[in-house]
Amino acid sequence: MRATVLLALAPILPIVPGGIIIPLYPPDSLALNHARINEPEQFNMSRTVPGRIDSIVNIHNPSIEFHPVDRSLNTGAAVILAAGGGHNSLNVGSEAADFVPFFYNYGVNTVILRNRLKRDGYNPQTDEVNDALQAIRLVRAHAKEWNLDPHKIGIMGFSAGAELAAAASVQFDEASRPDFVGLIYPGPSPFAKGRTPPPIPKNAPPAFIAGGGPGDKVHANWAIEYYSAMLNAGIPNIEIHLYGNGRHPGDGMTGGLTDRGGIPFGTWQYRFIDWFRDLGFLQKPGVNHGNQAVR
Fold first, then answer.
1. What pTM, to 2 d.p., does this model score?
2. Quick check: 106 and 25 in contact, CB under 8 A?
3. Residue 64's pLDDT is what?
4. Residues ≥6 apart with Cβ < 8 Å to 178
5. Structural domain includes residue 291
6. How far apart are CA 6 and CA 55, in angstroms?
7. What is the arithmetic mean of pLDDT over 8-31?
C-alpha cells in the first residue's frame, strides 16, 4: 500500500497588513501546476519604503487578498485590483496596495489579485484570465460574510492586468460576471487588431477606460478598440479618458495613483470615482439615487 505524502504549501504573505488571503483554487485543483505549487513567491521590496512590496513573481498558488471597509463607511462595493507588469511581474505596490486606502475613503472594499504569470510558464489568455474569473466567483461567494453587495463586485486592471479585466467582461459565466470593469492604460483586449473578437454578451458590464493618448499611442489604440466594440454593441455606461499628455508606466513615468507631475492624467482616479458615483455604486443599500432606488 503506497503512503500518501502531503506537501506543505508555502505560506502566502499579505501585501498590505491585515489582508484576508484566500487561495483561488483548492490544493488538488487540476488548474494548478502541482510540481511547483509549494514554491514560495518572490518579492521585490522597495529600496526606499521599509516593508513595501513593489512587485511579485513566481506565483503558482494564485490568491486574493481582501481588505474590508468599516461598517460605518461600507457601500458594499468591492474592486478587485489586477496589477500590471507585462505578464513578467505583478506591480502590486503602485497598482494594488496604494489603492487600498484610496478606495477605503470612499467606502469601497478592495481585493488584490495575485494571478499567475507568463514568465512562470502560464498562458495570459487562459490561465491568467481564468484566475481573474475565479477571483470574481470567490469574492461573490464570500459577499455575505464580507458584508458586500453581490451586485457591486467588479475588477480594475492596469496594463497587462487590464487585459484580464477586458477578457473577464465578455468571457464570464453567471457567477463570474463583473458588475463593472476599469481598464487603466490597457494592454490588448479580445477586440485588438488581429484577434478573432468574441460575441459581446448583452449584459456585458459598464466600463471605465483611462490612459495616455499621443504619448502612449499603442495602449491608446487598444483602449479605443475595446471602447468602440462596446459602444457599437450598445453596452451602456462606457466611458473613456485619453489624455493629451501622458506616457505608459515604465517609459519614465510611474503608474497607479502618482500625480505624474501635476498633469491631468494624474487625476484619472477621481474621474473613475465620478463615474462610479454616477452609476450608484457609492450609495449604501436602500439609499435613493435620483429617482432610482439602489440596492
1. 0.93
2. no
3. 98
4. 80, 136, 153, 154, 155, 165, 168, 169, 172, 205
5. no
6. 30
7. 91
pLDDT of residue 249: 87
Q: How many domains does the chain have?
A: 1
Would you say residue 294 lies in a domain?
A: no
pLDDT-derived band at 284 (thresholds 50, 70, 90) equals: confident
- Residue 12 counted as domain residue: no
Residue 52 makes CB contacts below 8 A (sequence gap 6+) with 45, 46, 93, 97
Residue 65 C-alpha cell reads as 487578498
Expressed as residue numbers, the domain containing 195 is 20-24+35-284
Q: Is residue 267 part of a domain?
A: yes
Residue range 45-63: mean pLDDT, rounded: 95
Interval 182-218: pLDDT, tens: 999 999 999 999 999 999 999 999 999 999 999 999 9
